[in-house]
Amino acid sequence: MSRVLVARLDGMGDVLLAGPAVRAVAFGRRRDGGAPNDVILLCGPEGEAAASLLPGTAEVYSWSCPWIVKPAPNVQKAHLEVLTAFVRQSRVDEAVILTSFHQSPLPLALVLRLAGVDRITGASTDYAGSLLDVRLRPGEDFPEDQPEAERALGIAEAAGFRLPPGDDGRLRVQGYPDVRPLVGEEPYVAVHPGAAAPARAWPPLHHAAAVELLEGAGHRVVVTGGRGETRLTATVAGPSALDLGGRTDLKTLAGVLAGAQALVTGNTGPAHLAAALGTPVACLFSPVVPAVRWAPYGVPLELLGDQSAPCRLSRATECPVAGHPCLSSVAPEQLLDAVERLISGVPSLSTRRKVRHP
C-alpha cells in the first residue's frame, strides 16, 4: 500500500469538492494494477473539519499555506520546514495537488520535492519543468468550465487513480450525528444566511421575509450559522423559526442538513456540504465566480440570482456594484417558489441551463 498525499489547501467547500478525487486515490485501483492507497489529506485550517468527514481519508494534516490562506502567514524557513518534516516522517510516496483555475500547484510541488516526494501530479498553465511528473494543461488537457469536483477527479485520474466500480463520483461525507434531539422530528427547510464574502450574501431582510413566507406556506424552518453570526441568524429566524446560530460545529451542521427537505443558502461551504448529503439546494448564487464550476454538485438545484450582472466573474469579495443587484433583485417570493419546486421534485429547466452556461 502506497502513502499518497492529496493536497487541497483552501476552504471547507473546496475540500468537500475534492471528495471524489480522494476516494479515487484511496479506493480505486491504479492503471498499473496497484493496491488501494493510504491517503493523507493536506488542507488549510479552514478545510480541516471538512477533511475529517471525507470517506477515504486515513489522516488529515492542516498547514497554513502562505500562497493560499488569507490572511497569509509570513514565508519563513521554519514554517516550510514544518511541512517538509511532516512529509518525510509520513513516508509519502506520491502527491496529487488539487487546485482551482486561479491557483498554481508549483510552489507546493517545490516544497514536496525538497521533502523527497518522488512523483507529483498537478494542473498548471505555467511550465513546470521537473516539479511535476504529470502535468495537465488547463484549457488543453481539460476544459476550464467544468464543475470543480470533476476538475479534481480529472487530476487524480491523470495520476492514474480511478474511482472504483459502483462509485458515481458524487460528493459524500460520513461520521455526522443524529440531530433529531436538536431539531425535532417534523420536516423542515434549512436556511443558512451567512457567507464568508459579503458579495455572495443575500440581504438579511430578504432572508427574514423568505422565512416568513416559508412558514406561511406550512414549512418549518431551521436557521443555521456560525458563532459570529448569531445576530444575523436571530434576525432571519424571527420569532418562530428555530435559531441554531452558533450552536453547531461542522459535524452537527451536517446532521442538520442531512435531515432537511432543502437548504437555502448562497455560494457557501454549507451548500457543498448539503450536496455531499444529497440535500436539494436553493442557491442564491452571485456570479462573481462561475456557477458552472462552483454551484452545488450532483443534487437537485435551483440557482437564483442574475448570472449576467455587471459583477460577473470579478471574483470580488465586496460587491463592486451599488445595491448588490445580482442578488438583491431576487424576491423572497421567488425563493419560496424555488423551495416548493425542490420539495416537489420538479427543479426548473432554466436553472439547469444557467448552471451549464453561466
Taking all residues together, what is the mean pLDDT?
A: 93
User: Which strand order spans the largest sheet, edge to edge or round the barrel?
Assistant: 3-2-1-4-5-6
Structural class computed from helices and strand pairing: alpha/beta
Helix content: 25-40%
Tally of alpha and pi helices: 15
- Uncertain regions: pLDDT < 50 for 5+ in a row? 349-353
Distance between the termini: 42 Å
Using DSSP, what is the number of strands?
12
Short synopsis of the structure:
With 358 residues, this protein is an alpha/beta fold. The protein has helices spanning 12-17, 19-27, 48-51, 77-89, 106-114, 148-158, 180-183, 204-216, 230-237, 250-258, 269-277, 291-294, 325-328, 332-344, 349-356, and strands at residues 3-8, 38-43, 57-62, 94-97, 119-123, 134-136, 189-192, 221-223, 242-243, 263-266, 281-284, 301-304. The chain has a six-stranded parallel β-sheet with strand order 3-2-1-4-5-6, with helices on both faces.
Describe the structure.
It is a single chain. By secondary structure, this protein is of the alpha/beta class. The chain is 35% helix and 14% strand. The chain is built from 15 helices and twelve strands. The strands form two sheets. A six-stranded parallel β-sheet has the order 3-2-1-4-5-6, sandwiched between helices. Helix 3 links the parallel strand 2 and strand 3. Helix 2 runs parallel beside helix 6 and helix 8 crosses helix 14. The longest helix is centred in the N-terminal third of the chain and has 13 residues. It is globular and about 60 Å long. 47% of the residues are buried.
